[in-house]
Amino acid sequence: MFTSAFLRRAAMITAMALAMPALAAALKSDPAKSSVSAVFKQMNVPVEAKFKKFNAQIDYDSAKPEASKASIDIDIPSFDLGDAEFNKEAQKKEWFNGAQFPKASFVSNALKPAAGGKLDVVGKLSIKGKTADVSFPMMIKKEGNTQVFEGALPIKRLAFNIGEGEWKDTSMVADEVVIKFRVVATQ
């Protein structure tokens, strides 16, 4: 009925399928309940600005978090300081240069289990044409039928050329920026 070649091929396909690691489940993020913001100090006063548009992709397996992966694309022109003139200034070449670099992105290389329901996340952050290796802790918690991923990534704005020319002076706008995120996702 079945030829020996057919049986060998079927056995080989089955063996390959069993040898492949389990894939993490792709989650659907809820933009209405999620947020990404940047917190910095201007003249030593904390300021928080939100990115109104972003796309988060999370493939997460709680049984095998190391098989998980995450990425986010942030729409730079959606940066909102709460004032139209400030928003326009932030898009200029000296700051984000939103016309030339309309997206910032993060792509994970590794997610490792850590204490207290956290993951240690390692990956590459790209802003304004510059890419850097970054790492940060991320909290994962279940809220009803959703998974919530929260974290804060400290960066130096000057490492990404955010604030060129006279704006390299950190006495007006601090070099330290914290990118905060909360992504709410479902299966």
Automatic annotation (TrEMBL):
The keyword Lipid metabolism does not apply. It comes from the Bacteria. Residues 26-186 form the Lipid/polyisoprenoid-binding YceI-like domain. It comes from Noviherbaspirillum saxi. Keywords: Signal. InterPro entries: Lipid/polyisoprenoid-bd_YceI, TTHA0802/YceI-like_sf. This is YceI family protein. Pfam families: YceI. Residues 1-24 form the signal peptide.
